[in-house]
Amino acid sequence: MSLSAAVLLAAGSSPSPTPSPTAPAVPSFQDAQESASNAAGWVEENWSTWLAIGLRVLLIVVIAAVLRAVVRRAITKLIDRMNRRTGSGGGTALSGLLVNAERRRQRSEAIGSVLRSVASFLVLGTAALMVLGTFQINLAPLLASAGVAGVAIGFGARNLVTDFLSGVFMILEDQYGVGDSIDAGVACGEVIEVGLRVTKLRGENGEIWYVRNGEVKRIGNLSQGWSTAGVDVTVRSDEDLDKVRETLGAVGERMSKEEPWNEMLWGPIEVLGLDSVLLDSMVVRVSAKTMPGKSLTVERELRWRIKRAFDAADIQIVGGPEVPGQAAATPDPAAGVAAPSAYASTVSPQSVAASPITPPSTTK
Description:
By secondary structure, the chain is of the alpha+beta class. It is 52% helix and 14% strand.
C-alpha cells in the first residue's frame, strides 16, 4: 500500500469533527415586504366586516345607555308624581291621616331603587347578549348554563328569594313604614328600618329584633289611621249611675280642652254605658278615639283623672278603702248569739255519751 493510500485510510477511519451551530437566518427585505403585503391584503379583505361589527357593538351600547337613562328618569318622575298625588290627599279624612312626608319619602325611595335596579338589569343584560351575538358566539350553551345555575340557586337560596319578594310586596303595598308600631307575630315593636330582606324592630324594653320578611305571616299595624283608648271603671252596685255618668263626662270634657291631650284626642271621650252588672259591682266603659300609638298614654291619664274625680265626688270604687262608720251602722244581728250546742239537750246522743258512768255497787 502506498503512502498516500494509507493517509487517506487513516483520515476516513478517524471520527469526523462536529459541525458548528449555524446562526439564525435573518429575514431579508423581500420576506418582510411579502409579509406586509399579506397583512395588508388580509386587512383589505376583512376591514369592512370588522368595521360593521364595531359599529354594531357601538350602536348597541349607545342605545342601551340611552334607554337605561330614559327608563330610570321615567321611573323617578313616576315616583315623584305618586308622592304629589298622595300628598294632596284623596279628599277623605282617613287619607289625610295616613299622609306622612318622611314615611312617603322612604317608601318612594325604596320602590324607585327596586324598579331602577330591575330596569338596569334587563336593559344591560339584553345589550350584553346582543353584543355576544354580534361576535358570532353561540349563546345556546350560555343560556342553558345560566338556566341550570338559576334553578340551582333558586332551590338553594329559596329562603333568600322568599324574603326578597316578601319585602318588595310589603314596600309596594305600604303595609308599614319607619316609625310605625307593628305586631309581626314573631316580634312586636317600633319599625326603625325597612329592608328588602330584613325588617328591624325596637321592642318595648329597647331590644332590637331582626325579622326576616319571609317569616312574617301577618302584620298588625298599630300606627295607621287612629287608635282607641278604653277604660273600664268598676264601682259599687249601690252607686248612683247618673252621678257616675256626670262625673265621667266632666272629666272627659276637661281633659279634652287641656294640652297636650287636646292634640292626642281625635274625638270626644264617651261614656258607653254598663259593660256588666254583678251583685256587688258595676263596670262602666269609657272610650275615646286617639292619635295612632297614643292610646296607652291617654288611658293612663284618664284613669288618673277618674280616680281623683271619684274621690272628690265620694264615689266608691270596688276594692277601695271602707267608709268610716259604715260597719257600725249595719251591725250583725247574730253577733251576740252563741252557736247552738248539741250538749244543751240531755237526751241528745252527745249528752248521753258524755254522761259519767255509774260506778258498780259493792254491797251484796
